[in-house]
Amino acid sequence: MFKPFAAIALLLPAPALADAIVDNVRGMTVDKAGHVTRFRALILDANGRVVCLVPADEPAPRPTRKDPGPRYDWRADMGGRVLLPGFIDAHGHVMELGFRALELDLSDTKTLAEAQDRIRAYAAANPERKWIIGAGWNQERWGLGRFPTAADLDAAVSDRPVWLGRADGHASWANSAAMRAANVSARSVSPPGGRIEKAGANPAGVFVDAAQELVAKVVPQPAPKDRDVALLKAQETLLGYGVTATSDMGSSIEDWLAFRRLGDRGGLRVRIMSYGLGVETAVAVGATGPTPWLYDDHLRMGGVKLFADGALGSRGAWLKQPYADAPAQSGAGFMSDDVIRNRMSRAAMDGWQVAVHAIGDRANAQVLGAVEEMEETYHGDRRWRVEHAQVVDPADLPRFGRDGVIASMQPTHETSDRVMAEARLGPARLTGAYAWATMLRNGVPLAFGSDFPVEKPDCFAGWATAFTRQGADGEPFGGWQPQERVTREQAWWAFTGGGAYAGFAEKQFGSLEPGQRADFIIVDRDPLLATPAELRATAVEETWVGGRKVWKRA
Prior knowledge:
By secondary structure, the chain is α/β, with parallel strands linked by helices. The protein is built from 18 helices and 21 strands. The two termini are 27 Å apart.
């Protein structure tokens, strides 16, 4: 019988007898050099690993026990459909994705008035909720020209606390009832690494980065059963987009326990490369260093997530020069140089991989400087990661390549942010913004993701963006900062093998190489022949993980 999830500890050579064949496909996979391999069948062993790819111009062996050659106990005929390796989203937030689907979601609202209507209707439909909690608002998309205020929120709901996260997670919006519940007043002081937006001397209702904790500390936390439901919802969403593995950037202890509960029940289908939220979380999970792979390569905590700064949208990204549209602000660094080095060293000494969120050019320079110092002490294959690397001083770009620092970047951020980025930075500082091609020219390992739920976990949209620098509307003509386009094949690798490499998982999955887990998707078109618009419209029909079909489009 075909046993796709049998445990295996080592990467074994291809066995003489194979147990399954995925036949009659238009299969294709890509390698780091951009070479595309096409095949007509995928042969698997009893553990759901790839034995070999049958070339497109060769007939697949027939499954018969009488044949002295390979034997197949199980066969799937795909009817000539397109098969691709599953996507690996190199940067996402699994639990937040699930909660976004279960709570108030403002991500598609286009105006403040529309958001107010949505909030009002949600509160009316959920009278039992003591707090109204949600996320997804974006004042830039609303064309508001300012942050929303508590008064704006009171106009929608005033009889109970409301607490709504900004789309990027780096600011939150409270109504007056929420601020009263948290005892926030004119006497409240912005903490280090955070900012309370003010209306005169009074809090205006928006709390940026570390200041969010002033209110968040009194917001009811989800129960374990709620986390379990959110995880199931997130998993279903990811599989529907063809994401078979993801890096979960900033897993809390509660998140990790939810992953373990689902894994213990045999229900974990998406592979999760977990990065603990801070050194403390990672050490609490694995006191002596990274955990081994669990549940047949479905879960591992291998790294630590740190934050060097905030985000552009809330002007929390730490810049070398003031914001062009707010000359009194330059963002904020979350850690001094000594602190970031101490935290990175504490993680590295136990073998944890270190991933640092850095968006502004000052934050990126700080992280690169810390890595250069760490390299003097911590040798070997460290694979330091910078998450986002959105705005980098051109003088600092070569530093990524010198130390092999992985640039974990999100193509759809460029299309969502470009107008705002121009306003925040001014034209003189756009050269090092979202600089994918320059990263590759400098020999930087590139891993692409979506930062879901900030953006949808739609890797086809990210793929199209990466080689066009255009949005779904085809704008701007010729692409924004087109010199930073990468090739179609380079983008594909960054969403597959590049994401696996970034998580020390290239032996487990990523490119359908012999010995890897058979994680693949069946789609409705050839992505290498599709126009950018057609690529964005690609539909995932089936998602397979470890040689087992785990999702099918209804």
